[in-house]
Structures are given as C-alpha cells and as structure tokens.
Amino acid sequence: MKASFVSVRRPGGTANLSGRNRMIRSSLAISTTALALIMMTPAFAFDGWHQQHATMIEGKGSGYDYVSVDSATHHVFLGHRKEGLQVFDPATDKVIKVIDKTATDSSDGAVLIPEFDLGISNNEDGTITPFKLSTLEAQAPIKVGEDLDTSHYDAVSKRLVLNMGAGQDGTELIMLDVPSLKEVGRLKVPSKKVEGADSDGKSAFFLAAQDLDKVYKIDTKAGKVVATYDTAPACGHPTAVTVNAADERVYISCRGHDAIKPSFTVLDGDSGKIVYSAEIGGGTDSIVYDGDLKRIFTANGVSANLNVFEVDGPDSYKPLETLGTRAGVRTMAMDRQTKAIYAITAEGSADASKKILTAVSPFYANTFFPNTFTVLTYGK
C-alpha cells in the first residue's frame, strides 16, 4: 500500500507533517549510512601479506627448486642445483654455508627431520646427502638411483620416501628407514610424474600423481597403496600436497590442463571426496598450510602471484587475497615460529634451442642469468 501524507489538511497538520518528514529523513539518513558501512566492510579478513625483503645471492645462474626452513635455527635451505644446497640466514641476509658436495651433485632442495637432527639434500645425480641440522656438517652422499627429484618424510613409520625417475610403466618409490637410511622397501605406482606428498601424522601418506589426475593414499610401513583418489574435474595435474591432520583434509595445489583451470582443491582424506575447489594462479609448485593462522598459501610461478585462503572448518574455505610476487616464484616454505614465508626466483629466459617445459607454460624459463638469484621474504 502506498502511504499519502498530504491528502488531508487539518488544524496542526502542517506541523505534524513537518515532524513526520523530519523523522523519515532521519531514518533514511541512518539507513544510508548503515548501508555504506556494510558496503565498506569486507566479507572476509584481509591480512595484507606482502614482500618484506628481497636478497640477491651472487651466483652463476643455475636453476633452482625447493625451499625448506628449520624453525629452530631459522635457517632457510635453498635448492640451487649446480650451486648446491645453500643455507640462508635471514638474520644476516647471507648464505652462511653450502652443504658439502651438494654443488657437484646438484641439489634440488632438502627435507628436514628435526627429531633426528637430520637434513637430507636430494640431488639430481641420484644421491642423497645427509647432514646435521645443528652443525650443518655433511656425511658422504648415498647413491639411491639414477634420477631423483625429491623426498618426503613420514614421521609415523619413520620412512623417507624418495621420488625417483619414471620408467616406461610408472615410478618406483624407494623407502628408507630413518635415521639409518637403509632401504626397507620399494613401491611401484602407475604414475610417471609423482610430485608432492605429505603425511596425516597417523597412518596415511598422500602422494600426487600429476599425470593421472590422482592422489595415492599409501601405507608407507606396509609399502602399499591403500586407496587411489581421482581429483578431476576439480583438480587437473595435482602438484603440491599438504595435510590438515586435525580436520583430516588433504590440500592440493593443481596446475590445471586443457579445460581445467589451476585450482586449490580439498579432499576428504578418509573418503577421497572433493569438498572444495577454487581457482588459483598458473604454474603452482608449492602449498603451505598453517594451523595457527588458519591460512593456506599457494605459490604460482607463471602468474607471479600467491593465493591466500582462510580455513573456516573442514569443508569451509574462503579466498582472502592474491599477492603479486615475481615471475618464477613457484616454491616456498614457512618458518613456523615467525610465520615468515621464504621463496626463491631468478631472472630467466626461455632459450628456444633448449628443451622448454611447455606443459607448464609455452615460454617457461630454462635459462637463468648470473647474480639474479633472489630470496624473497613475505609477511604481514
């Protein structure tokens, strides 16, 4: 019903009308102000993650891969391939050590096992180099095969799982006992491109099969695959994996392919059901989850950005912000004490005379320039 305030005139009506008009105008003003405040208030908490430091490391222009952080010493381990496993000290902004023999063996990065004061450099020549986290003293390299990408530690079974080079019918995972580093088993999986992995801290170990759009759930003590979860169509080319053990959720950053866009995807670790998926930047190679902050981060080297998500519950997630980084920032690690995130990159070029990983990007850098390798620190 449309109200009319001026159709009847009576004694005192003008004063009453004026008073009602003032009340209406006041109510409208309050409503407008409230609406403006609602529109100005974001529906989520913007953290304001940003680059805090950038430190250039002198070098020859080698490739690079994984980053890891020892939160006890705050040392950052940089897989700088033919320039070795470099130990970066954020307090001095300097590389304080190159782990012995990791330059000649070409280090892809390190897995850190603080409970045994142990670090392992994963070397491209098929060796691993054990070293002490406390002293950075290295032991003799151990030959494990002809081609090694990376390794993952399962604290429950005390097994180190090594991603070896693929054969014609799949990939052989080599399992070593920790801390003895003696081989205790091998497991053949159909994937020819196994990538990131993480343990739930109970009995399950989740490994991405990038080429098959699957995640293997593995019992590393028994040395067998107990389940295989499909990630498509939400997640194409699953690459990096981390586990939220408290919620029994597996977090995956996916590169995407064909019609499947790059995504952050969440699996129920028990059933394999996909409970959430959202688009992220291209060229991801790393994912970090922090339970204290309730935040998930994906590093995306082709898009040169870092996506940040909030965890509201096992099946509830919100995209918070997308931080601009630099081209080639695809791997990262967090200091669990300071909450600083460390990433690496270098100025690169796609040399057409060399092999280019076109599956990642048509112009994916395969050549890097001397004295451009940089450690980037992000925080809020």
How would you portray this structure in words?
InterPro entries: Haem_d1_sf, Host-pathogen_enzymatic-act, WD40/YVTN_repeat-like_dom_sf. With 380 residues, the protein is mostly beta strands. The protein has a domain at 46-61 and 231-353 and 374-380: YVTN repeat-like/Quinoprotein amine dehydrogenase (Methylamine Dehydrogenase, Chain H), CATH 2.130.10.10. It has two helices and 30 strands. It has helices spanning 13-40, 102-105; strands at residues 50-56, 67-70, 75-79, 85-89, 94-98, 107-113, 118-123, 127-132, 142-143, 148-154, 159-167, 170-177, 183-189, 194-199, 205-209, 214-219, 224-230, 238-244, 249-254, 263-268, 274-279, 284-290, 295-300, 305-313, 316-324, 332-334, 341-345, 348-349, 367-368, 374-379. The termini are far apart.
